[in-house]
């Protein structure tokens, strides 16, 4: 279906969006019993955010007030949109979420912190969405022999980071060079981030 | 608009449903800048649930995994629907939610516990939806000279309750006569619940 969408729309660079529901039914909290699922798919032309990947982006930290099943990908994204908008209102491009000081992820991306050559990121449990790009990047890093520690870390650790970067489907890999106005890694993407961007690029080129 | 909907549809007993959005815009976490809000309203004929009000209903307790802004009425109801369905799967009619043992409310209604003639209910903060029926019932109770304690209480307190009842727009006031298989108040709606049902009924009759 994805292949078909891309062909029918003669897509170059862009995104394919898929959405599935239980199907139409009268409004009720109980699941409908005999509905046919509705599957919606569409694609949108979109340039890859190369400038963002080169320059990095800014972020602010915001309390993570989401539910306790963030590993479910659903359209119940009100807290994510509120966080993203709060970041934009503060002049930043992404919101780094924390639950009582524990850094979880961002409003629409996963977060990785590099310190002494080691990647730290929140474990893939119920408190974050296990992004596909996250998984691919961790695999590429592991293949490169980079140590990965999937354990919760604190807000305060962000300022001690050598590098910070996010992963997401549309952004791919991009540095966060400023958090709450504090400059990280000299304000430019660090060597490990750039290395992973190169590996990711190679992977894209080799599969298209 | 509500009056008009009711007149146009020649409604007897039923519900009027209103929904407002920021308006149509391309999918993005950021709020759209220049959209006109979409307001949708419709009504549905619905008999008042008199049998439920007379006989009471059963409930099971389920962890409250919702976000930390439950006072916002929105369509991000996935945790509520999951809880309601889990209750139904367990053969019960409602889910009593608790956050680490603190009873908050139900999947689609507010919960009140009666003990020694006093009404206990969770305070109207960010952890519950401040239902209109909740507010009206508390006002009726106060006018009747009943003491109301709006403070968090524990799961264990439920078993010591003389009466338990829920309030919601469609259910109005209904007893919970069984929680996790444990019978409350002899399995029938208690005197204070019935008193409030009468007062609520009088209020309906006097305003229609």
From TrEMBL, chains A, B:
<keyword id="KW-0032">Aminotransferase</keyword>
<dbReference type="InterPro" id="IPR001544">
    <property type="entry name" value="Aminotrans_IV"/>
</dbReference>
<dbReference type="InterPro" id="IPR043132">
    <property type="entry name" value="BCAT-like_C"/>
</dbReference>
<dbReference type="InterPro" id="IPR043131">
    <property type="entry name" value="BCAT-like_N"/>
</dbReference>
<dbReference type="GO" id="GO:0008483">
    <property type="term" value="F:transaminase activity"/>
</dbReference>
<dbReference type="InterPro" id="IPR050571">
    <property type="entry name" value="Class-IV_PLP-Dep_Aminotrnsfr"/>
</dbReference>
<protein>
    <submittedName>
        <fullName>Aminotransferase class IV</fullName>
    </submittedName>
</protein>
<dbReference type="InterPro" id="IPR036038">
    <property type="entry name" value="Aminotransferase-like"/>
</dbReference>
<dbReference type="Pfam" id="PF01063">
    <property type="entry name" value="Aminotran_4"/>
</dbReference>
<keyword id="KW-0808">Transferase</keyword>
<keyword id="KW-0663">Pyridoxal phosphate</keyword>
<comment type="similarity">
    <text>Belongs to the class-IV pyridoxal-phosphate-dependent aminotransferase family.</text>
</comment>
């Amino acid at each position: 279906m994805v292949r078909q969408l891309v062909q029918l729309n003669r897509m170059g660079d862009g995104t394919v969006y898929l959405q599935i529901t239980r199907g139409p039914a009268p409004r009720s909290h109980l699941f409908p019993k005999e509905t046919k699922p509705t599957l919606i798919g569409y694609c949108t032309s979109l340039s890859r955010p190369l400038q963002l990947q080169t320059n990095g982006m800014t972020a602010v930290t915001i309390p993570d007030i989401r539910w306790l099943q963030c590993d479910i990908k659903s359209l119940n994204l009100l807290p994510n949109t509120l966080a993203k908008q709060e970041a934009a209102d503060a002049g930043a491009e992404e919101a780094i979420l924390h639950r009582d000081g524990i850094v979880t992820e961002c409003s629409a991306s996963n977060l990785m912190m590099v310190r002494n050559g080691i990647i730290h990121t929140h474990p893939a449990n119920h408190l974050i969405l296990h992004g596909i790009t996250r998984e691919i990047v961790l695999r590429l890093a592991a293949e490169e022999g980079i140590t990965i520690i999937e354990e919760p870390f604190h807000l305060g650790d962000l300022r001690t980071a050598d590098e910070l970067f996010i992963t997401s489907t549309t952004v791919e890999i991009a540095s966060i060079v400023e958090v709450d106005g504090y400059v990280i890694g000299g304000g430019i993407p660090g060597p490990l981030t750039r290395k992973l961007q190169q590996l990711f690029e190679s992977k894209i080129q080799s599969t298209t």
